[in-house]
Amino acid sequence: MAESPKRGRLKIFLGYAAGVGKTYQMLTEARELKDKGIDVVVAYFEPHGRKDTMALIEGLEVVPRRTVEYKGSLLEEMDTDAVLRRRPEVAVVDEFPHTNVPGSPRAKRWEDAHVLLDAGIDVLATMNVQHVESLNDQIWQSTGVRVRETIPDWVVRQADEVVMIDLTPRALLNRLERGVVYPPDRARAALQNFFREPTLVALRELAMRQTAYTVETRHHPGEEETPAPAPAATAVPPKERVLLLIEPNPESAALIRRGRRVADYLQADCLGVYVSPTEDLRHLSEEDRDRIQRHLSFARGLQVDTRVLTGEDIANTLVTFARQEKVTQIFVVRQQERTLRSWFSEGLVQQIVNLAQDMQVTVVADRSTRPGGA
Amino acid sequence: MTRPDPDALLRQVQAEARAAQRGELKIFVGYASGVGKSFTLFDEGRRRHKRGEDVVIAAMQPEVGHDVAAAAQGIEVIPTGNVAGVPVIDLPAVLRRHPGVCLIDGLAYDNPAGSRHRKRYEDVQEIVEHGISVLTSINLEYIAEQQEFVRAVTGAAPADTVPQSFVVSADEVVVVDAPPAMVIEERNGDGVALHARLAQQLSQLRERALLLTADVVDRHLEAYLELHGIESSWGTQERILVCMTPRADATAMLASGRRNADRFHGELFAIYVNQPSLSPQDKIANERNIKVARAERAQVDVLDGKDPVATILHYAREHGITQLFVGHNLRRGWRSRWQGSPLDRLIHGAEGIDVRVFPHR
């Protein structure tokens, strides 16, 4: 067959917790494809000792994993090069948000999957909703779970298909208690921590909304000849442009995630700036310099258009830039606890609010503390 | 910890007592035929049967695929009666047999004249009330309140319906999801090119089904939290609160609030905190704002409170608000010399809520 330069298609099986049946569903589909004569291989699969799931892998070709030594222990990773050499039509990639062992060619498994897609291989992948980057703070706020392995929203948005794998939390808890999901000791720990009913219910709802959102963005934009959808479309709102003020403080990470999410939902452009009083970043401590670099590259990873501006008056420089760029909404972090000094001089947020009277200014919530919660 | 609320305790006791007598109702919701509802339903029945639960089938769809037939195999069947070509659940037989779990594929059937109940979902209700759990299935297009939407998208909607309240009040609702391409393939067999228009329609139905089940889940979550006395802002759904004042550009804030609420599939609230000694113009402005808020389909409340900022924040927490929209002019109103401007205090007090400040007119 002639080699086709066409990019592979990405299909994501989205769940809200371990044990809802993502991998099961993915492998079921892989088998169906194989039965239809499509060349499918398993590029990475995590059995977790689940019998039903392991039974499904029988008869499917598995590409052996790559063994990596790291700090004295042997770890296994997906062997992307081997999959490329094998060149199947479809590759199964379990645990899409996984972080590779340091020193791997790519930091994240989803990046490996993109290499396969670029080579024209279709990818079936599994992930949970809590791995969506921009939901990170919201998930922490509502469930107390801080997820470390995340996937930029655009990766999920650009997937060709996202399917929600649903199971009621009660059925999931039941599975857990029967030892289907984890071995007994791990199951007990899981029941006490992550697998509490309100947590699961909240995550399930988020997964449904996230899937609905991806369905919507997939079919609404850019299709001119489509019939008007039922909800009455009102006057066309002006194209929004969102600007994030990025600072060295740790809250800026949450600001970037939140701003990106709002921009996505409003289908707005998203820009991010750091305003530096000097041409270089020498005025910053080494720690802050490090942080600002991290924040900027984090923002770029989420496809935020980032710049460093120079100006001694942060508020003025920011708002002038915002006007030039026709920004409609500026995002800033909340001010830290007021000091005695700030009672007499205006804080940065007030300065920006005062200067930017022609646009919206959003002061992003501090979602690092959890109000109440179970 | 606060003292337990006696009403909440009573509700809990009543809920538990009801749950002890009633069977559990679980509904599989799909956005179209072909997503795999029947298979999911019978697959769960098969697994429960295998685990030793007493499972029977009280209704199947007239035509089933291989996978459904395979899943249903070995499970006892109570045959449906057939009145003028319409399959009817044999209600007396089901109640007599009194299984643990009853599988009823297809909830939206009108029973023929002379049946015990006019609608099949009423049969299901009676079965559940007799302490038998029911697994059943429905497509979006059969939910009465969704038909207007379905008709707008596809141009048609079936006659047999189930009220949404019945679906929403189920103990469990499961969404059966699949990409439109699979549904089209399921309907037409392999090799049929994906029809763009059909795919588009299916996507709209799919989105609606997911949002509907998300709302049901949200309601369950709220009930759970209430039952267990957990007070918390669970920011799973965006809730926008517009703070109206006579001088603010409430029209722009409300229009943006509506747009944002729609984009996020969230809820819109608008409040006004009563202030003493308003000028006649301000009173007129207020009334106009409230009218605009109603027109934008916001939940509108007029509140009283000595401290407007505290009143707004209290309302916001109570309603799980995630975004607070305020006018720029709030910098000046209600000024208190010792506490900074109201806007500062609002931002300061809002902690877990985004505050969006809107420009002057």
Number of domains of chain A: 2
Alpha-beta content class of chain A: alpha/beta
The helix count of chain B comes to 13
Strand content of chain B: 15-25%
Q: Remind me, CATH topology of the largest domain in chain A? A: Rossmann fold
Bulk shape of chain B? elongated
Proportion of strand residues of chain A: 15-25%
**SSE order of chain A:** EHEHEEEHEHEHHEHHHEHEHEHEHE
CATH class wording of the largest domain in chain B: Alpha Beta
Q: Write down the overall mean pLDDT of chain B.
A: 85
CATH hierarchy: architecture of the largest domain in chain B: 3-Layer(aba) Sandwich
Whole-number radius of gyration of chain B?
A: 26 Å
Question: Helical amount among residues of chain B, as a percent range?
Answer: 40-55%
What do these coordinates show?
The complex is a heterodimer of chains A (about 375) and B (about 350). Chain A has about 375 residues and is an alpha/beta fold. Chain A has two domains: about 10-220, Rossmann fold (3-Layer(aba) Sandwich); about 240-365, HUPs (Rossmann fold, 3-Layer(aba) Sandwich). Chain A is about 40% helix and about 20% strand. Chain A has 13 helices and 13 strands. In chain A, the strands form three sheets. Chain A has a six-stranded parallel β-sheet with strand order 3-2-6-7-1-8, with helices on both faces. In chain A, strands 11-10-9-12-13 form a five-stranded parallel β-sheet, with helices on both faces. In chain A, a hairpin with a 2-residue loop joins strand 4 and strand 5. In chain A, helix 1 packs parallel to helix 2. Chain B is α/β, with parallel strands linked by helices and about 350 residues long. Chain B folds into two domains: about 5-225, Rossmann fold; about 240-360, Rossmann fold (3-Layer(aba) Sandwich). Chain B has helices at about 5-20, 35-50, 65-70, 90-95, 120-130, 145-155, 165-170, 180-190, 195-225, 250-265, 280-295, 310-320, 340-350, and strands at about 25-30, 55-60, 75, 80-85, 85-90, 100-105, 135-140, 170-175, 240-245, 265-275, 300-305, 325, 355-360. In chain B, strands 3-2-6-7-1-8 form a six-stranded parallel β-sheet, with helices on both faces. In chain B, strands 11-10-9-12-13 form a five-stranded parallel β-sheet, sandwiched between helices. In chain B, a hairpin with a 2-residue loop joins strand 4 and strand 5. Chains A and B meet through helix 5, strand 8, helix 9, helix 13 and strand 13 of A and helix 6, strand 8, helix 9, helix 10 and helix 13 of B. Strand 13 (about 360-365) of chain A pairs antiparallel with strand 13 (about 355-360) of chain B, so a sheet runs across the interface.
